[in-house]
Give the backbone structure.
Amino acid sequence: MRIRAITLRILQQFIHDKRTMALMFIAPLLVLSLMSLVFNGDDYEPKFGVYGNTQAISAAFEKQSTAVVEYATAELGNEALKEGKIDALVTVSGPAPEVVLEGSNPTANRAALMALQEAVQSLQPVIPGQGQGQLKPQISYLYGAEDMTTIDRFGPIMIGVFVFFFVFLIAGVSLLRERTTGTLERLLSTPLKRWEVVLGYVCGFGIFTVFQALLISWFSIQVLGIMMAGSFGYVLLVTLLLSMTALTLGTLLSAFAANELQMMQFIPLIIVPQIFLSGLFPMDTLPVWLQRIGLATPIYYGSEALMDIMIRGKGWSDIALDVFVLIGFSLLFMLLNVLALRKHRKM
């Protein structure tokens, strides 16, 4: 009977907690559906740029339905490669083509090399008595290298993900504890304005996020040896902005949670989708509507900026948009935090 009473009490708690019930049954289905869309996406289709005596190689690429763009000058082709508009630039000025891979995405590299191999094989000269000759393209990399490891490719993304995840969780739970213990209510009963309370919490938590961002960035690069082609200062800037965005989002969502369990329930809905859409998988292979959702998430911009810095060695002009978007997210979440505090201020 006692066991039965405990069992009934637990069941009643779950039944009356509509959010827990919904997340318990719906959230796994949403995450699995997202995984299905990501892992069953279209095969990556490489995009080639060609320059020089390209009639034969262009015909070979078009024969296998590979996207090809012809450039009038090598400078235009190199600029397109740097901007990520193409995955490889093929220059034909001698018997063997010269190929420069963009290099920062192993998936794109493999797809480009396979398409290139098929195209070159169709152009192999036939030598009497020997069959096809060996026409080997000269391959180089604009970013990264042939021996770039998995941690080099995914390291920048995971730095952004870990920074965002832990700050989001700690900030949300900490502010939730302030509410449940009555500290926040007492603060709001003073002459303090709501924006002052929000800014105070952001600055207080922000001091710790500075040290966290510095530690994670330093450890990843100096101890784990993740590829670092750009400026460490820019890496620190982006991780700090990611931390601030996670901090303001965590404190915002904590206003809608009644306890730590409900705060944890935001993870499969807020964090997990952002991880899948952060750049771990080529966005071009995903449905268009899913790509647009990815463009509305903070982790995507943080990961893109970190890859530009750490793998491609780019500077301020290339990461400025990502930086301003992260700042915009932080300011938006701070404003929403101020509005959310209305429900906790006693009149």
Observations:
- Strands lie at 47-52, 67-70, 88-92, 98-101, 126-127, 131-132, 138-141.
- Confidence is low (pLDDT under 50) at residues 126-132.
- The longest strand covers residues 47-52.
